[in-house]
Structures are given as C-alpha cells and as structure tokens.
Structure prediction request, 479 residues.
Amino acid sequence: MVASEVHPFAKTGGLADVLGALPRALVKLGHHVDVVMPKYRTVSAGQPIGQITVTLGGQVDVADVSAVIDRGVRVVFITHPAYFERDYLYGIASRDYPDNPERFAFLSKAALTWAASTGHAYDVVHAHDWQAGLVPLLARRTVPEWQTNPPATVFTIHNLAYQGVFDASWLPRLGLGWDLMRIDALEYWSRISFLKGGIVFSGIITTVSPRYAQEIQTAELGFGFDGILASRSADLVGILNGIDYDQWDPERDVNLPVPFSASKMAGKAAAKRRVLEAFGLTGTTDIRRRPLVAMISRMVDQKGFDLLDQLSEALPALNASFVLLGSGEPRYEERWKQLAERHPNRVGVKIGFDDELAHVIEGGADMFLMPSRFEPCGLNQMYSLRYGTVPIVHATGGLFDTVHDVDRGTGRGTGFTFVEHSPVALLGALGRALEMFENRPGWRRIQRAGMREDFSWDASAREYVKVYERAISANRVGA
Prediction:
C-alpha cells in the first residue's frame, strides 16, 4: 500500500485511521502487507533498511529507507528532508504547499522503486487518495522490473472532494509526457489531476461505503468526476470502513471513568458526568437529567455547520444540552463560542482536539449529531453506536449505510436520520430523538440495537480480499 499518512505515525484525518487498521486486519487473515509513507518530521520510528535511487523528471535523488514492524505490518518510511521534514503534512493553514505535486509524485515513484528493489512478487499495489494517485500509472510505465509481470493495482477514494488538481506544466517536471494531457488520462479542465490518474489507470477502484460509491456517480456529489466514475462503474466498489475495536470498546476503554456494556450500562452515567464537568455544564439536577447531544467535528460546511448556524437560537431552546469538540472555520468557531457564552447551562464548546476527551464524549453523550452535507464513510457514528450513544445523521454516504432510522410504529432502529439537507429536517430528526429519549425502555432498546452492530475491520478486510482477488484475475487476463 502507498499512502500519505498512517496512524499512529502521522494523521490529519480518517485516511490515517484506515491505513492503521486495514493492513492489520489483512495480516490477521493471513496476508503479508507493506505500507509505504513519507518520513515526516514527527516520525521517529523505524530502523534503516537501505537506500534507493529515485528519478523524477530531470532530478535524481538517493533516498534513505527505514521500516518498523507494527502489529504484524511492515511500515516503510521514505526519507527526503526537503519534501517531508516540514511543520505540516500538506500545507500551512488553508494553503497547500506549492510543490505538493512534486512531493507526492516523489512518494509514489519512491514507493514503487523500493517495492521493485525488494525482489518480492507483490500481487497487488494498493494506492490511497490523490497523494498516491500516480501510483497505478507509474507502476505501468516506470518500473522496469515489472514490465513483463506487473502487479494488479487498486485505488481507493477516501474523499472525492480532494482531487490533487495542478497546472499541466508539472508534467515534464515529474517525468511525465504530454501524451497524458488527454481526457482519458490525467487531463482535467486543461489541468492535471492526480486523483483522476488513480481512477483511470487502476485495475479496480474502491471507495469507503456502498452508498458513497453510488453518490459520487451523480452530478450532485460527483464534484465534476461523476462522468469519469460512471465510465468505470463496473470497476467501482464501495466497501464500508471499519473501526478499531481495540481502541473503541466501552468495556475496555481506559479513558472512561467506569467501563460499561450493552448489558451493564451504569458506567455510561459516570461518563456523562465527566463530560458535563469537562464542559462546565454542572450545578443542577436538571442539567444532569437532560439529554446530552454531542458533536466532535471539523467546523466546516461539509459537516453541516451551515445548517447548525441557522438553528443557533432554536437549539438552546430545546430540552437538551449540547457539547462540541472541534475546530475549523474561524466564523464557526467564534459563533459557537458566543453561543456557549450566551447559554452557559445549555452549550459547552472546546476548540481543538483531545483524543481522551473524544472517547469520554462518545461514552457519556446520549446522542451524537452528524448533519454532514456529504460523508464518504464517517467513523464517529460507528463509535457512537458502539458506545450506546444514539446517532442523529443526514442520510448520506456511510451515514446512510450504518444508521438505521427508528421506525415510529415499532421503535426499531439504531438512530435518527433526515433525508433533506435543511435546518427544518435536522430539527425534525432531533425532535424525534428527544421525544423517544423520554421513553426509557424504548431508548434502551435503540441503544442496545446499536451496540450489537458489527463494524469491525474483519468484515471489511474480507471484502478487500475479494477486490484484490478480482484485480489479480483481471490483471492476468489483461497480461
């Protein structure tokens, strides 16, 4: 596998979580997995295993290679101080580093150069997101050792909104020919797209939930790639991400004040008290009894903060308390801080991220709100289900696939969903949840139904194995 970030070595989002968990799940199934990533400034792990010579355009570099075995997975680090020893992975604030196309083309070329140098007969090269989008193309064109027997290629789209679009003048600087400026290659509106390279040149394309695989072939959620993806729909597979039950298990979570399970829920109340204390929402019995609605999120439009903004006066008027842990656009950070100041007994806000507190929030909240405009997979709704925290979500992408709307008649389901992405629809779903919260037996039934769901990586890894086998078979036929 080739990726720009891998937990626990470097992380900005869910991509790193997948690369930390999926390879381990594949190893448990008996497969051998090497994961290649940059050696960023923050990476201290790894022992030297050699050097490689990497040619990129007119540039020739000798790169040190180191590796560590992490729970059965070999994680390989590519060293290039000028490219990777920086303060941030992709850029400063909201501005990407201007040489990102060169940095990640180098990662792709170096990963393949190292893989070919090992002498291993890799069955599959699996590239992730735009940063590794050139891997399927380079594997075909620039690895002499693989010209007669190349491995199969798989490319995963974790979030279609990030497309790696750059000026076409980068082509010769990356050692790529102008013949790639075609609609069936890298060309994208007179520029080039690394993401498109991964889609066009890989054997199989996957994305991170079945619903998202359908949505990205539509004009509404295709971000300009709907036609490209529709042309490869026969090779596009949606596989739901899993979650790491070693880290997210209320019976073993060391961050919780008292462990709990579906059959013994008392510890959830202790976690709720801890959350209320952390956010300063203490003092009266009424506050403790109120349903606690939590959010852990980037504060951006994609996560539904435009809808929440329109409900800033309506939310504190509900019979509920709200806590928010996250950061994002300054306008949303400021508005939520002001909301907490105006309603100190109803709203608690912490700007930033705190992993320990995130675990306690998942354990202690009664409900978890995810009004995302689109959500390729989402992890927090699955954490919430595991911890008996009932999700309230927009029915999109992985949220649609994982949260089953509570039926008004039977009371069966695992959460509350809304279809139209509007403030009214969001408020309606939240209202249904608050109403059901008063029915304690019914609420317990919903909690336990969610806690019984299985979102472990084991099931997802088996689906990836099917994709690999299909890619290998197609690769043999093509050869």
